[in-house]
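Changelog note: in this version the structure field was regenerated for every chain. One regenerated record is shown below for reference.
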Amino acid sequence: MRQMMSTFLLTFLSVQSALAAPPVQRPDPQQTPQVSAEHQLSAAEKATLWGLTTQEWQKYETLLQGDAKFQFSQLEPVWVLGIYAESEVERRRYVKLFIEQGEARLNRALAFNQTFRETALEHFRHQPLIDLDQFYAMYGQERPQRSPVNLPVLGDTLVFFVDPKTHSSLAEFQRIKDLMLSSPGVPLEIYFMGGATESDIQAWARLANLDQQQVQHGVISLNQEESAASLFQVSKAPAGFVVRGENATPIEF
């Protein structure tokens, strides 16, 4: 099932993280790669596998006979040589080589991961990633029903009808502000009902803590309701809508 995909991806991420940090536990490079008893790799062959010269490999083996044997025997040859580098130029060479080798391993892992995902998606395309009904049934519970959430997207317009003389409308307006925060760039049109005067509108705007810059730039428009309420079939405030094209979806407060 697709659960196997998730398991592989988690494992892959662990491998990827390991490439960015010093390795802690690695097989003894003296014993890698695995070969049969009939064919033991020469020093030159081992050096080539790690991108080193024969002289560098011999230095690495010498280091493992001394202090490095007890502290760094599980590290890669390039890493050990970098630790014991005798100059900045030499150290940079090993660092660059280590990065290049790590990048090559990562690219191979990414290629395998991509092929794995494509193959797994093709093989399991008719199976859900998580069967929520089965999950809740396993614990003897009913799957909860989600209430619809009407989130505006760019291109929509938020419309809010309010009676400025009713301070309780500020709580409903917070819901509108939350929608604006979750959908940057969506404009808001506020229509004031109940025969609101200019001073009523200004007083409510201060209490609602409207962003003056958004008002000045037309992101929020303040309007005295004239015919908009009948168009949206609103008889009582507060009321809100997400307008998308010719459709207006009511907002639940």
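Spot check on this record: The mean pLDDT is 77. The chain has two domains: 2-123, 157-250.
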